[in-house]
């Protein structure tokens, strides 16, 4: 809490010092002023009494006068100032030090509050307030104890001069009770000083001795003294100060609060009510006390006027005390102590005894009065309880000058002034009871006040003393206010009582007493007391509960300071209160304080502080009405405008509105020019602010760029780092990005209007700093100079933000030099609200919002973020592209040609143009318009035979990126090139986003740029394919014996468009045409079609079945060579399957999807070429299926999970190991015989049929094969009770050897001739009695072959 410089006891004694009057003759005053001092000033440093001064109380006890007791010496002509002047002095005292430099920081709960360590303005005001009080008749504290009469040795008759001075001073004291000066005792104690000026040319020491002897003879030896001065012979220059100047602090204090002049008004006007008027009346015009308009005192005697006017003449500045020798100073130092010990204290002791005897005689009090302090404090009666609520005035009860009550009050005041509380307290305590009974309210209040102060000063206080003293003081304050109507005395009591309470830690009680004295009568007094009460609240121990009280009373104090005209103090109070309410969600209170701080700062020309306060009102969350917010905005703009008018070199000021979201700021390097979008034409926009370059999207683009850079720098060692064209909060901004000279650099900002009124901005632009390359230390900015050739700044002419609205804006600059560009702020002209009256003018102020970005915090350090710091590089080519025929709907596997127009709009030629596409299953090819395709990978294509053709396909690794051929391998500035790009759509059905990236380089090494484009397509699946390859059990093809191993390829193809299209009615007109079937394999090629429909056109939901023979090739393919065969379906073979795009797409997908291994039984890739006819368009595409195993069904597309296997009714068959399954499928065989025969069993009992077994080695091993006939039948036996048997008859046998052994070379075949004997007519399965056992040649292990080949034979009775 703020503390006072003075301790409480020192404050009380300084408020009530013993007063001594001084009457000085003109010649004596002249002698003093030779030292640039008057007589009172000359004695001021030496008015302290010695520490060993004592007096005896009426009981004879020796009491010590308070050590360090200081007497106050004043001219007898002094009187309180006139009302206007008193107010002026109080205002001037309170105006001292409005902005203290000594600031302390106090912790209040969870907040920190700064406040001044001292309040010198309050202490100065309090001192002046206590000094200018009128000497009232109800107390003797302001009455003079004695009078020092000073005459010069050069006066003709010093005794007559003394008598004339005293006569003039006391001339009217008997006629007017309010006449000044007032004396403590009558007659007043006089002390006579004969001043001898040794420096005077007419100085005569013997004459001085004679005058001094006359004075002693007239007034007594003890009451006279001779004071020689100005005996210094070695005078120093005026510009040199003596070694010590004891008068400096007193003269400076006198200059800060000058001594009041002589009597300015008539004596009758000097009443306590007149003083109250002086302190409370607020007058606009205050005349200077020395001005000719100041009224004079008509009742003053002529000699006193002369003396006063002479004494109060201003003292010229210069060296003080230069005529005073060390001996002179010592005599000055001893004058007042000698006067006190020889005259004043013995006189005071005598008066104390006299007054005590008088009081005892008149009141009948006990002589033990002065030893009853503890007994009186133990009384249970509350002070003032006998007083009722009278309707009388303070002067309703008066006492004569020699009454016991006044004598007792005079006794208490005299003891109090001498620092003897053990004598003053019993007197005040005894007096208050009689005064309460007599309803003498003014004297009662004064007695209570002094009793409380005396109780505090007692060296040994009873336990109940503090509480009783506090009750006395509260009673005194209430009596002053309610009954006496004298708030000036109540204020004096409260000022002293509050300091006592604060010294005891009773902060709340001190604050309550100070608040009680506030009223509407005096704004200055109320402001000062409210401020001190606020400090008391904050100094209590309940900081969290009383902090708001501190802030509230600071606001009240600031308001009263403002009404009193002390704006600096008002501003300081509001600023201190703001610390309590700011950020505590007290919106209206905070707005009021901020607005007041702004207004006060503006009045005091503290425009930066006013600007900051008004700016906080515009930042966020104000609950004020829109009209009030408009006032806030206009006040802010006017303040900023005034600040700019004073200092035009400060640059663009920072504005509080709009709010710019710097965290989500985006920077785009190389903004393309805007073009109109045409139907079925897509302009490659590159990277835009709408591009989502985070998450999966970012990974896709970085992967495409890495593929392109790797392909372009094949064979080079480099560390890949993607080029950032769009800098976002989620991108890696730890390195400075590179931009190209003469190209746009755009910044996207989100601006928000926090106010409830629309705001208009004009000339919105970016503020930047540019450092040219090769010029270190040179920095160019458009903040100070508008015309710059380094960077062109584009301006947004108008921006209107509605109330509470947010809007994204894009601002651009174009660098014209190579160097480093830093974007620092966004500048604009903020237009004020529309004028509401004719005297208001439209206002607009230029301002800015700083732009700053901060990177992520890693390992305790902030990672740099260079979104706004860009390095400008030399020119580069700039590629623009236009895509024609790029639709939003495709079919899975569709191959689509897209026309691309390329244009180099940059100043440099470009080369090494590469293209990559994502997702990976999307393929693309490119070919310049009008150029021939590259050499076909298909060779040795044979002639058509039985509907198919066979050739050799060279499969080489195709790069993942596409290199675009350019005319001359370079595309010059402003040149164009047209190319065709074939895109094979991905095989994933649904909505899909395709990403296309183009890579190109300039003529400089290791500098490249990218152009990216993405679009979303809807993919429909037109075809459903089911394929299965099984071994063929028929060794003949079209009636001829097969020359090699053969397989059967079964296909089911369905048209799926109507099942997946949104408009099924239009799909009824669609048709799917199967164009051709192709097979790619190392060992197999396509054979003739077994089932060949005439026309394979399918309507929606229709399907067709196709069966092809697949034959093993006798030729061996080299590395990267594959057998390619294709066959038409319902039509003749055409060149579509041998065209360049089809084969390249086949190779790309073949390399991507072929997963055949050495363990695969089949490495066959099926290719289906289809065409879909719609009402308006024709879609062509191709599908591929990889078939790796025999007997496995391959389906595309696969929807969902695989179906669950059927639940077996019987126990499942035992599992067979893969090795055993392979050993049991080494050989396949088939039987050749007639299908039916007629035989006469009556003529011959057996029918003999020739049978030929065809064996085929299906492995790459040499095998020995055992053919066993007449084995037990594998089917059941027909019983006599059965009418029907599910199995063919097996009641036959083979004739000849029943076991034959044959050796088969790898992939070779052989025939075995048998004869079957059939006993009766019927249907027979000739394979039921055959078993084929095989094993590797040279090994004993053999396995029964599990090949099943039913061979039915029908035998009929010949009729």
Radius of gyration: 60 Å
C-alpha termini separation: 139 Å
Number of strands: 60
Shape: elongated
Tally the helices: what do you get?
A: 29
> What proportion of the residues form beta strands (DSSP E)?
25-35%
Low-confidence stretches: 256-316, 366-396, 1058-1064, 1276-1285
**Roughly how much helix do the residues carry, as a percent range?**
25-40%
Counting helices, strands and paired strands, the structural category is alpha+beta
Biggest beta sheet summary:
7 strands, mixed
Average pLDDT confidence is 80
Summarize the structure in short.
InterPro entries: Ig_TPPC8_1st, Ig_TPPC8_2nd, Ig_TPPC8_3rd, Ig_TPPC8_C, TPR-like_helical_dom_sf, TRAPP_III_complex_Trs85. This protein is an alpha+beta fold and about 1350 residues long.
Describe this structure in words.
Strands 14, 16, 17, 19, 21, 22 and 25 form a seven-stranded mixed beta sheet that branches. Strands 31, 32, 42, 44, 46, 47 and 48 form a seven-stranded antiparallel beta sheet that branches. A hairpin with a 2-residue loop joins strand 39 and strand 40. Mean pLDDT is 80; it is low at 256-316, 366-396, 1058-1064 and 1276-1285. Among the domains are: 13-81 and 132-286 and 299-349, no CATH class; 659-675 and 725-835 and 842-873, Immunoglobulin-like; 883-1196, no CATH class; 1218-1275 and 1285-1357, Immunoglobulin-like, CATH 2.60.40.10. Helix 18 (507-516) runs antiparallel to helix 19. By secondary structure, it is α+β, with helices and mostly antiparallel strands.
């Amino acid at each position: 809490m703020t503390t006072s410089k003075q301790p409480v006891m020192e404050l009380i004694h300084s408020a009530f010092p013993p007063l001594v009057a001084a009457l000085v003759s003109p010649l004596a005053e002249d002698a003093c002023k030779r030292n640039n001092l008057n007589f009172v000033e000359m004695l001021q440093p030496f008015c302290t009494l010695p520490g060993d001064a004592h007096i005896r109380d009426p009981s004879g006890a020796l009491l010590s006068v308070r050590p360090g007791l200081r007497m106050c010496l004043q001219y007898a002509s002094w009187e309180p100032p006139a009302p206007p002047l008193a107010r002026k002095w109080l205002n001037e005292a309170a105006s001292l030090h409005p902005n203290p430099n000594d600031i302390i920081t106090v912790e209040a709960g969870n907040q920190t509050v700064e406040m001044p360590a001292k309040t010198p303005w309050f202490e100065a005001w309090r001192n002046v307030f206590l000094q200018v009080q009128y000497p009232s008749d109800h107390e003797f504290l302001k009455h003079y104890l004695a009078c020092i009469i000073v005459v010069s040795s050069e006066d003709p008759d010093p005794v007559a001069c003394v008598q004339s001075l005293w006569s003039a001073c006391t001339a009217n004291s008997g006629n007017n009770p309010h006449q000044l000066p007032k004396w403590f005792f009558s007659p007043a104690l006089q002390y006579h000083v004969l001043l001898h000026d040794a420096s005077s040319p007419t100085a005569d020491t013997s004459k001085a001795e004679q005058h001094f002897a006359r004075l002693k003879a007239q007034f007594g030896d003890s009451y006279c003294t001779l004071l020689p001065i100005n005996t210094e012979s070695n005078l120093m220059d005026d510009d040199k100060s003596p070694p010590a100047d004891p008068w400096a602090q007193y003269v400076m204090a006198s200059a800060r609060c000058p001594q009041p002049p002589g009597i300015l008004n008539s004596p009758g006007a000097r009443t306590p009510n007149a003083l109250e008027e002086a302190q409370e009346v607020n007058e606009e015009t205050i005349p200077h006390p020395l001005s000719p308009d100041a009224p004079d005192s008509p009742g003053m005697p002529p000699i006193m006027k002369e003396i006063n006017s002479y004494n109060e003449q201003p003292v010229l500045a210069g060296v003080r005390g230069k005529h005073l020798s060390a001996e002179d100073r010592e005599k000055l130092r001893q004058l007042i102590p000698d006067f006190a010990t020889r005259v004043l204290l013995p006189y005071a002791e005598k008066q104390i005894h006299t007054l005590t005897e008088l009081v005892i005689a008149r009141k009948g009090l006990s002589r033990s009065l002065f030893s009853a302090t503890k007994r009186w404090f133990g009384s249970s009666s509350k002070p003032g309880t006998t007083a009722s609520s009278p309707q009388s005035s303070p002067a309703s009860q008066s006492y004569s000058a020699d009454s016991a009550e006044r004598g007792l009050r005079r006794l208490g005041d005299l003891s109090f002034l001498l620092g003897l509380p053990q004598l003053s307290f019993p007197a005040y305590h005894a007096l208050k009871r009689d005064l309460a009974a007599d309803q003498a309210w003014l004297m009662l209040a004064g007695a209570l006040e002094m009793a409380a102060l005396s109780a505090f000063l007692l060296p040994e206080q009873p336990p109940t003393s503090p509480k009783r003293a506090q009750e006395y003081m509260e009673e005194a304050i209430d009596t002053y206010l309610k009954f006496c109507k004298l708030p000036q005395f109540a204020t004096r009591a409260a000022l002293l009582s509050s300091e006592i309470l604060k010294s005891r830690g009773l902060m709340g009680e001190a604050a309550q007493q100070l608040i009680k004295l506030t009223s509407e009568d005096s704004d200055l007094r109320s402001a000062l007391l409210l401020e001190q009460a606020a400090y008391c609240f904050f100094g209590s121990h309940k900081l969290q509960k009383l902090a708001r009280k501190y802030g509230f009373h600071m606001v009240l104090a600031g308001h009263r300071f403002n009404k009193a005209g002390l704006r600096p103090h008002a501003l300081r109070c509001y600023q201190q209160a703001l610390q309590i309410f700011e950020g505590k969600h007290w919106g209206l209170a905070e707005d009021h304080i901020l607005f007041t701080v702004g207004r006060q700062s503006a009045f005091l020309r503290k425009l930066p502080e006013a600007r900051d306060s008004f700016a906080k009102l515009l930042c966020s969350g104000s609950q004020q009405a829109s009209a009030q917010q408009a006032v806030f905005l206009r006040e802010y703009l006017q303040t900023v405008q005034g600040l700019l008018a004073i200092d035009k070199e400060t640059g663009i000021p920072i504005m509080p509105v709009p709010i710019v979201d710097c965290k989500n700021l985006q920077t785009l390097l190389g903004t393309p020019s805007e073009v109109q979008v045409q139907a079925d034409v897509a302009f490659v926009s590159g990277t835009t602010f709408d591009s989502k370059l985070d998450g999966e999207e970012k990974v896709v683009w970085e992967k495409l760029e890495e593929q392109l850079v790797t392909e372009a720098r094949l064979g080079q060692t480099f560390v890949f780092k993607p080029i950032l064209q769009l800098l976002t909060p989620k991108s890696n901004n730890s390195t400075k990005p590179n931009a190209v000279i003469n190209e746009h650099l755009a910044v996207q900002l989100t601006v928000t209007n926090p106010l409830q009124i629309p705001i208009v901005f004009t000339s919105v632009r970016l503020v930047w700093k540019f450092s040219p390359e090769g010029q270190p230390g040179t920095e160019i900015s458009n903040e100070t100079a508008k015309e710059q050739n380094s960077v062109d700044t584009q301006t947004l002419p108008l921006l209107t933000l509605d109330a509470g609205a947010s809007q994204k804006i894009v601002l651009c600059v174009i660098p014209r030099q190579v160097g480093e560009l830093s974007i620092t702020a966004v500048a604009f002209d903020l237009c004020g609200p529309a004028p509401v009256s004719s005297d208001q003018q439209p206002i607009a102020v230029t301002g800015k919002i700083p732009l700053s970005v901060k990177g992520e915090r890693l390992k305790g350090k902030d990672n740099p973020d260079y979104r706004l710091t860009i390095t400008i590089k030399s020119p580069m080519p700039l590629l623009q592209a236009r895509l024609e025929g790029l639709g939003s709907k495709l079919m899975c596997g569709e191959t689509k040609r897209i026309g691309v127009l390329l244009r180099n709009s940059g100043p440099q030629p470009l080369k090494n143009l590469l293209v990559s596409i994502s997702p990976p299953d999307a393929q693309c090819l490119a070919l310049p318009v009008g150029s021939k395709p590259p050499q076909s990978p298909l060779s040795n294509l044979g002639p058509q035979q039985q509907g198919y053709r066979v050739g050799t396909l060279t499969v080489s690794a195709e790069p993942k990126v596409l290199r675009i051929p350019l005319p001359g391998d370079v595309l010059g500035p402003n040149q164009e090139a047209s190319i065709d790009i074939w895109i094979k759509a991905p095989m994933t059905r649904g909505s899909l986003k395709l990403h296309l990236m183009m890579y190109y380089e300039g003529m400089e090494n290791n500098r490249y740029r990218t152009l990216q484009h993405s679009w979303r397509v809807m993919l429909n699946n037109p075809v459903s394919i089911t394929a299965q390859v099984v071994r063929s059990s028929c060794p003949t093809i079209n009636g001829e014996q097969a020359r090699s191993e053969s397989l059967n390829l079964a296909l089911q193809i369905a048209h799926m468009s109507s099942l997946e299209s949104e408009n099924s009615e239009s799909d009824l007109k669609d048709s799917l045409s199967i164009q051709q079937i192709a097979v790619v394999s190392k060992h197999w090629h396509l054979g003739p079609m077994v089932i060949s429909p005439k026309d394979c056109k399918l309507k929606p939901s229709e399907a067709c079945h196709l069966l092809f023979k697949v034959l093993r090739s006798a030729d061996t393919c080299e590395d990267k060579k594959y057998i390619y065969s294709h066959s038409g379906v319902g039509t003749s073979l055409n060149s579509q399957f041998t065209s360049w795009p089809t084969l390249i797409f086949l190779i790309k997908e073949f390399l991507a999807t072929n997963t055949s291994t050495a363990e695969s039984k089949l490495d066959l890739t099926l290719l289906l070429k289809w065409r879909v006819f719609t009402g308006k368009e024709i879609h062509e595409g191709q599908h591929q299926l990889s078939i790796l195993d025999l007997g496995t069904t391959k389906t595309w597309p696969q929807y969902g999970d695989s179906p669950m296997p059927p639940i077996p009714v019987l126990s499942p068959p035992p599992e067979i190991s893969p090795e055993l399954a392979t050993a049991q499928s080494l050989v396949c065989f088939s039987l050749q015989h007639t299908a039916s025969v007629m035989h006469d069993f009556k003529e011959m009992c057996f029918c003999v049929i020739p049978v030929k077994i065809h064996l085929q080695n299906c492995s790459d091993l040499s095998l020995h094969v055992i053919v066993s006939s007449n084995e037990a039948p594998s089917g059941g036996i027909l019983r006599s009770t059965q009418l029907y048997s599910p199995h063919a008859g097996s009641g036959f046998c083979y004739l000849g050897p029943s076991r034959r052994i044959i050796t088969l070379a790898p992939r070779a075949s052989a025939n075995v001739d048998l004869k079957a004997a059939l006993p009766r007519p019927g249907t027979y399965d000739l394979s039921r009695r055959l078993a084929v056992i095989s094993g590797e040649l040279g090994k004993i292990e053999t396995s029964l072959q599990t090949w099943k080949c039913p061979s039915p034979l029908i035998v009929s009775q010949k009729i």
